[in-house]
Predict the 3D structure of the following.
Amino acid sequence: MNLPDRVSTFVQLGILINNLSENEKIELFWRAENKNSWFTPSSCQSALNGIALMMGEDKLNIWLSRYRMIESESPKSVGLMMAGNIPAVGVHDLMTVLISGNRACIKLSSADEVLMKWIIKSLISIEPRFKDYISVEEMLKGKDAYIATGSDNSSRYFNYYFGKYPSLIRRNRTSVAVLSGNESTQELQALGKDIFQYFGLGCRNVSKIFIKSKDQLQHLLDSLEIFSGVMNHHKYLNNYDYNKSILLVNREDHLDNGFLLVRETKELISPISVLFYEIYTDLAQLQIRLEEIKDNIQCIVSNPEYYEGGVPFGGAQEPEVWDYADGVDTLLFLQGLN
C-alpha cells in the first residue's frame, strides 16, 4: 500500500464521518456515552467534526508536503498508549503512524473504546489492507517504538518501561488565554467554548486566563452565562459542588456565577468547573511568565492581533493536522525510525 492509497483512506474516512445518518450517530453516540458519561452526544459530534475537518484532502496534502516521504520496506511496529480524556483523542496518533507506513499497535483507554473501535473498523472497511497494519492489544511488549499519552504520574511509568526504546512520551498539559481587556462579548463567548467544550477535560481547554485587571472578570462572567447548561450534567455538577465546598471551607477568595468558580492563583491546571486567573502588567512581563511555564502549555488563546501567535477565541479545540501535541513533530519522529 503506497502513500496515496493511505492518504485516500483517511480522506474517505472524513467523508464517511460527514455523511453519517442521524440514526447512525444516535446509536454510536449512545454507546459512547453509555461507556463514559462525559462523552455526551454533543461532545462526540464535536470530536468527529474536528476529525473530518482534519482529514480534508487539501489539508492532508499541505501537511505531507512539508516532509520527504520515503516508502519503507520494513514497517516498524509502534506501540500507542492512548489517552481517553476526550472523544477519539488518539486519532491523530493513529493516522500519523499509518500515514508514515508503520504498524499501529494500540492500547486503548477503557474510557474511549467505542469511538476508537468504530474508527478502526471504518478504516479497515474502507481499506482492507489496513487490517495488517492495525492491532488492538492489551499488552504492548517488544515494539520498535512507543508513543504514550497520559498524566505526569503515568509518564514516569511510561519512561520506566519504554525509555530504552525510541519513544515519544507526553505529560499533563493545559491551555491558557491572554485577554487585553478590550474583548467584545462575542469574543468572550467564543472563549467560553474553549473553556467548556468537553467539560474542560482536554489539554487544549483553557484552564487559566491572564488579565490586566480584575475589572475584566465581571464582563467575562456575564458573557459566559450562555454556558450555564453545563450544570445539567451530573458529573460536572458534582465537581462544581465539591470544588465550591473546598473554596468555602478554606475561605479562599473566589467568584462564582452559579456554574463556574474563578480564583486568582499562580497555579496552572485547574480542576473541572474552576477557572484560574493571573494578573499581568504588560506583554513583556507576561512573555517572561509564559516562558516559565511553556512546558505545561498546549496552546495560548488570544486575539492574534494582540498576542502574536495566539489561537483565535473559540479555536482551541480545532487544531490543524500539523498542530502536534506538545509541539513535538510526531511524523518526523516516526520517519526517524526508518
